[in-house]
Write a structure and sequence with these properties.
Shape: globular
Number of strands: 15
Strand order of the largest sheet: 3-4-5-12-11
Helix content: 10-25%
Radius of gyration: 23 Å
Order of helices and strands: HEEEEEEEEEEEEEEHHE
Largest sheet: 5 strands, antiparallel
Length: 281
Amino acid sequence: MLYRTGPPTGYGRNLTEGEQALRTGNVLGRGAAAALCLALVSGCNLLPTNDGGASASAGASPATVAGGGGSPGTTAPLGKAPVRKATIDGWKVYTDPDRVLSFEIPADWVVQRQIKPSQPSDNGLHLDIRDSSGKLAAQLHTRLKVPKATCSVGGVTELRVLLSEPAKVPAVASADTVEPLFVYRTLLGYKYFGSYGLTDKPAGNGFQACTVENTVNGPKSVGTYSFGTAVRHGTPAPGEKTGLLDKYGLIAEAERFITTKRFKTVQQVIMTLQIHGDAPA
């Protein structure tokens, strides 16, 4: 039996410039992908986005076009929203595969699909939006199944509405809803617990509440949806998991947070949400 003692085939000669470039590119590609996976603690379920302010080029693969649908400048299929362009310089657009909803994010942020949805829904869409450092900035959920909230006398606590601004997002009005808002609210437990997001649900009497809900009663295409850090939050007990809730020892800390660049960027992301209400359910 013969054994090869020399170098593997191809290593005993000088590589052409093309072969060297290809080999280098493959190594760099694998390294970049590995680094990204390490940075994003929940996995590499990255979803495609549009390229920002300009339409995708004619030679781009379908995966580079938001939602993978259509050529730039063409009419979208019936029942689907057209692929949109980013309105903020240096940002890009995420559009779901069915082109039912879209929103804008900074160029170095990413959108990930939740393999195991963190909220109960009726076959809804569940997304994590992460900033350039991999930190979770917001979650988007559609077709939510939200149980009716209950409130006992002993569960009522101090409510602070630190920010409330009108949000131009689709909503189906009912007797117990208000016009959609982007809000930041805190409830007082053993600490101040805060959350932000879209809502059309009033909370308590403006000064006290048991829980606050960050959901909107949307059109048939998305049902009840949430875009923020908590679908509903109350006041967790010591030792209980607090999820994405912000925690503060002093209300002044929460007031400072909503003036930061990070918060204002997240708010911009959420406020860019568009929903195509005529898409099939």
